[in-house]
Amino acid sequence: MATYNSIGATYARTRRPDARIAARIHEALGDAASVINVGAGTGSYEPPHTVLAVDPSAVMIAQRPAGSAPALEASAEAIPLADDSADAVMALLTVHHWSDLEAGIAELRRIARQRIVLFTFDPDICRRFWLLDEYLPEAAAFDDTRAVAVDRLVTLLGGARLETVPVPHDCTDGFLAAFWRRPEAYLDAQVRAGISLFAQADDDLVRPGLARLSDDLSSGRWHHRHADLLDREALDVGYRLLVADL
């Protein structure tokens, strides 16, 4: 996980949990009395009854706030815990970074007693997001190599309930599509540093598209083209909750 040891340094500033998304995640966890967060990063969205966080990046773990659950430096594919270690396991915006998806999901199923909650994205829908479709198609094609189809996740989980999570226009968690109504944010290098697509794609793949976006914002073309977004409070850009009962 050398990647997140290098790109995770800004997460505590740019990837602050959004209360509305937190409410959806906590609702999905149901009445679980104990929760393990796998691919936990800085600890966003962990409920108070989180008993352990698992993440392979020491840089991410170091940014966890004081008083948060203890963290174990380990990968999702090999979690050094006993079977049935917690009522529920959650894994948020992480499965597309795993080197062995099947092994990782099998580990979640092994350590969870009752429920698994994944927060992920549907690549087919995300690919149509204006930033990727109009400005960064080459970078999006690179990102597609990591994306995980929702149907595949459902199959590996042995079945799951699928819930749409619209993204608020003022979302505080700066993941890829969080700024769908604030396009100027994508021109901020610190914002981009907290988004894995920008951090992992070659600069040559993103620089021309960002230049076009800058020009379109300056000229008003972006606002004219996307006038339908300007009064929207929330947008479905492909983010999904998968809830699997074991």
Q: What does this protein structure show overall?
A:
The protein has 246 residues and is an alpha/beta fold. It has a single domain (2-245), classed as Vaccinia Virus protein VP39 (Rossmann fold). It has helices spanning 2-7, 11-14, 19-29, 58-62, 101-111, 123-126, 130-135, 137-144, 150-157, 189-193, 196-200, 203-219, 221-225, and strands at residues 35-38, 50-55, 71-73, 86-92, 112-121, 161-164, 167-168, 234-235, 239-245. A 7-stranded mixed sheet has the order 3-2-1-4-5-9-6, sandwiched between helices. The two termini are 29 Å apart. The relative contact order is 0.16.
Task: Please write out the topology.
Layout: H1 2-7, H2 11-14, H3 19-29, E1 35-38, E2 50-55, H4 58-62, E3 71-73, E4 86-92, H5 101-111, E5 112-121, H6 123-126, H7 130-135, H8 137-144, H9 150-157, E6 161-164, E7 167-168, H10 189-193, H11 196-200, H12 203-219, H13 221-225, E8 234-235, E9 239-245
